[in-house]
Amino acid sequence: MSMIGQRNTHSYLSLAESNATYLEPVPSAQERQQRGFTYTAGHIPPRSSGESTGTAQRAPTGGPATTRHKQFAQLPCDGSACSQPPQYFAPPVPPRTSAACANAGRPTGPPPLPPKPPPGNGRPPEEIQHDVFATRQTPVRVQNTEPRTVAFEVSGQPHQQFVYKLYFENRDNAGGHVDYVMVDEDKGVIQITFVNAEVAKAVCEIRRHKIGDQEVDVKLCYPPKPRPNYQKKLLFQNVPEGVDRDLLQLFLESVTGCESEEIIFGDDEGVVLATFDSEPDFDKVRDKCKQKKLKETCLAVIKVPVTNCILVENLATETPDCTIELFFENTKRSGGGPVQKVQRFPQRSTCLVFFEDYQVLDSLSSELVLGKKQLKVRPYLECLGSSGGTEDPSVFTIPENVVVKDKIKSTFLTKFASPFEELQQLLQPLHAQIGISEDTMTVECKLTPSVPKARSLAKTWAADVQQITADFLGRLQVKRIEVMQHVWPLIDQTVNQTVKQTGAGALVEPTQNGFIVVGLQKDVDTASHKIEGIIKVAEEDIERQKLVVEEIIDTLKRHKTRLLSASLYCDKMRKKYPDLQVDIDDNRVRFRGMIQDVKNGQVAMYELLQNEEKVLIPGLSPAAVQVFGNKRTKDYILSTFRKHDITAVMEVERPEVCVYALSKTEASHAERIARGSVLTTVIHLSPESSDLLYSQSMHQMLSQLIKGNPGLDVTPADDQRKVFITATDDVIKSITSEIKDFIKNNTFYRQEVLFSPTRHRFISSVWNKRLTEIVDELKNEQVAMEADYENNRFLASGTETGLKLLTEKLEALEEDIIVHEETIDSEDRLKFLNSDKREKDFKELEKAHNCAVGLEWETPGVQVSSVNCCLQFISFNLFLFLCVWFVSSD
């Protein structure tokens, strides 16, 4: 089909103008409804292939209208008269198929008209059905080519048609007999067609008219310029699907008598555009197609008008239509000419441009740049479809995805694989794939050229998918179950579990506090029955709760409530009275249930407490009482009672500790258990350990012990020579051992270490490094040692264990010393050796040979040396020569 409109630099476009002697008046809305057709802008119903009509209807805009151009009609035509000018504003044609697109871009001259009906007859002529091969009757034409239609725009709401008809038939307004009136309320455009062209001309000479409260400028409308047909091109319809290209080529050459140069298959099924090496005889070709069949099918043949349209690709999406129009009207920039209209595709990067003169297509520039983008331009034949056709019949346009927005059912399909797979199986013959995202189900076409009958499947793919999905989703039942607000918390989790078990999806709508059950009918019925049963039980429970009473008894002493807990009173009441709830919190007992159950529970409680017996634990120290009062001790003793199957509790009523039980026997037994559960031990301290009691390390150690053993009590004696430890029998042994080890490892002793003077001097000067190594080895035992040169001794400090190890190592060190002794009997020699000069010599000798020399007898070992007239030579070296001058006393 073709969008026809006249560019108008001084007036509006008119598609209602013709040079015929008569045009059928536009019927009223009531008449159109009675006759079953409407004048509707923007939509023309399709008609079947082969149908023909001598009428036309108003056309859509075909795209966004610019402020300079208005489109008012779209004109159908039939194959037998596609070279004839169209007629305007006649009643609509019957539905037709997309094959009628072959008439796109046909010549736009004055239209052929049916015979004129009697004057005053406002009804449209009967639709004349033509066979595609029938010879069309020659329409009656009038030689007058003057325009009879005027048009104007109005601001605001247009008046009714009769207002404009009365105004323009008034002689005072230069009017005359009005043929019909066309009102476009959406665009605010009114067209008046007169019987005589002279009246239209006279009305436009006034130009400014005032109709009611509206002032309008009236201008003449001129018919568009007609276009010729292609001489060597013919459009064939009803071509069988899957026909071999070579067979089709031979058939076309047979019926035309010409050699085919190009065969292009259109987007619609059975549409083929053929180009021949010479001009075929159209009438003969039509007759032969009528007589000769291709695969038992008669082909329809149609002349193809020269196109006045181009397909523009690679547009910038933000480029407006008016810019495109002005660009192609600029002869210097594009080589174009006056533009009839611009029709934009949804993706915005492609559009159709219709020119008023089809010859403009020959003068378009080859290099076109708009919005810094190189445009791709090619002639466009509407008969081939938006793709422009293809030489390969297997090529087809992939249908757009089918989108179904149904949040509830889409969610159901995502959660349950079986229904999803079933729907996918139903769509498999159509080569469709389902994808679900959030609340949307998208069905994508997976057709490929290799699929048999892919073009046929693609043609109805969207409709078939929509039908299958609608039928399938229609099988899924959605049932809403409302729930009262006060019932909701009692059934929420239970209902969700029930729905999962039944195989139907259950969704909660928080705004309505209800359930939506989705699935097949049987699953929905099963789930709904169970849910409604759960709701009924919950509602009955709520009604029963209205008869429930609650009483709290808070007058009992603490040991009584503890005794009730120890006797498992609450559990016994729940078993005996299932609807009775008993809770004990500190010294409060709460009863909740039917009034009779509450009273029975209270009676049972008082009867149980009547058997209470009390026993004191004698001879406890304050520390022991302190330990008994600790919660950890109480829990431990209570657990011990339970192990011995005794129902008893213990309470500290300072300065006493009492045991309560439900019988005398149990009370006595419980007293013995409690008394033996808390013990006291004593640790004796040495004088050196007494200072440790108030040290920071002792405080930290005891804090850690008490933290890990609540109820522990550690008390030092007044003389600081003892420590009393009180704790439960399960931990006292380990705690006592840990404290003893701490005291042993952290009590520091001081010790004087004595060697003989010569050995002391040797170790201090020669083996000082070895002495340091020994002390370093005992650092973990906190051993330290320093030399006292004045008194020839070493002072050591450390733990008991450390000092013992130090003594052992020093004794071993002393045993490593090699001693050479020589007795001097001469007093003179002794004096000589004791002289000041010899003392200096001895020091040089000691320094030179790493040894020590002494002139007195010395006791070996680690001890205090004694004074002896003896010379000692000490050295670690095995060989040492010493010369001593001996002077006799005589």
Explain what you see.
The chain is an alpha+beta fold and 890 residues long. 34% of the residues lie in helices and 22% in strands. The protein contains 27 helices and 39 strands. The strands form 13 sheets. It has a 4-stranded antiparallel sheet with strand order 4-5-3-8, with helices on one face. It has a 4-stranded antiparallel sheet with strand order 10-11-9-12, with helices on one face. The longest helix is centred in the middle third of the chain and has 25 residues.
Give the overall average pLDDT. Answer: 75
Order of strands, main sheet, comes to: 4-5-3-8
Number of strands: 39
Q: Which stretches of 5+ consecutive residues score pLDDT under 50?
A: 1-143, 863-890
Total helices: the number is 27
C-alpha-based Rg, rounded: 59 Å
Rounded to the nearest angstrom, the distance between the terminal CA atoms is 161 Å
Q: Major β-sheet, in short? A: 4 strands, antiparallel
Structural class: alpha+beta
Shape: elongated
Helix percent band: 25-40%
Q: How much strand content do the residues show?
A: 15-25%
Short description:
With 890 residues, the protein is of the alpha+beta class.
How is the secondary structure organized here?
Elements (H helix, E strand, L loop, with lengths): L1 E3 L24 H7 L37 E3 L73 E5 L7 H8 L9 E7 L4 E6 L2 H10 L1 E4 L2 E4 L1 E2 L8 E9 L7 H12 L3 E6 L6 E5 L5 H10 L8 E6 L3 E5 L7 H9 L1 H4 L4 E6 L6 E5 L4 H4 L5 E2 L2 E2 L1 E4 L22 E4 L1 H9 L1 H11 L4 E6 L2 E6 L8 H22 L1 E6 L5 H15 L2 E5 L4 E6 L1 H25 L2 E6 L4 H9 L2 H8 L4 E5 L2 E7 H15 L3 E4 L5 H7 L2 H13 L4 E6 L2 E6 L2 H14 E7 L2 H4 L5 H13 L4 E4 L5 E7 L3 H15 L2 E5 L3 H9 L2 H10 L6 E5 L4 E6 L1 H16 L2 E5 L4 H7 L2 H14 L1 E4 L16 E5 L15
Helix pairs in contact: 12-13, 21-22
